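Good day; I would like, with your permission, to put a structural problem before you. A protein sequence and the structure tokens that stand for its backbone fold form the material at issue. The record follows directly beneath this note:
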Amino acid sequence: MTIKDVAEAVKRNCEIANAHNWGALSLCTFIIRAIELYKWEKGIKPWEKADFDSVSAWIKEKEKLWNSLMSKNFEKIRIGKKEYEPFDVKEINENLEKGYIYGAGFLGSLKPSFFLAEVIETKNIEGLDVYICGRELARDLLAPTAMLQSREVYVRREVASFYIWSKVEEAKSLMFENALKLAFKDYNADLTSIEDVERIVDMEIESYIWHEIGEFHEKESLEAYKNIAKMYPKTKIEMFATALYDSLADLNDKGRLSFIIKKKRAGSFSFFIAGLHGYRKILLKEIEKVYWEFRKSFDWSYVDDVRRREYERLKNLAEEFNSSIDDMNRLENIVVRETKS
């Protein structure tokens, strides 16, 4: 079995995952993800345009395929003479050809996700093995920029590049100055320069790593989230829990915001704020407020003070949330209370 054979098996599971996942996405999110997947499949660079009619025809064919796969189970991954369950990540990676990495796991609402990629760099940070992935041989519709599995962090450069380039297009369309436009300004980037934007991708990858490290240090939150996702899938309770535990991962002493403050990365701070939406924007409203104060003084120590204070506040909120896991009404009341305050 060659790596191409393994890639084909992973691709089949990616399509089965797509069949389960695509209907749960909002129309806007689906279109963004679908265009990205189309460009990846066709070898179109993130900064290149995709033909609208071609994308539309491709989506129609994909929808037919995904509807036909709804009842299919994930296939085993065969390497050599042995077959592995698709979520046996450690065993599969131990037997893959050198220079490749396989990832499988569950994202929000326990959506399955898979990928296979080349490894361009490995490092050990805070006792975790970090793999920087390059060219991807298989990927699905969801494709997170980074993923934590046990004591390993996978960061996907191709996915990160697609994400940052989508933000370039968004920033170009904005008439007023906001955190996103300031992010590119902080990086002194020419939005027409491939080199400038790809430099940002490499810089932002570091902050993605530290979100996953922060997540590793929120083990209790991770376990609580898994229980909530099983008990209240695709509800406001689960969406709030996702936002809460992601925010804790970002705000703890090993998390993304702490890294940004230590490295004094104004551009990363701007991207962080620009990426706040939904419940995360509500939960981190004090961080957003301090960001705009920061723009006047660039006082990193004040930002860190607020980060520490807000982490403790959210930690207390998480303890209240976790202790109410068996009481749906109480959980709903907490969500309402926190989103109204």
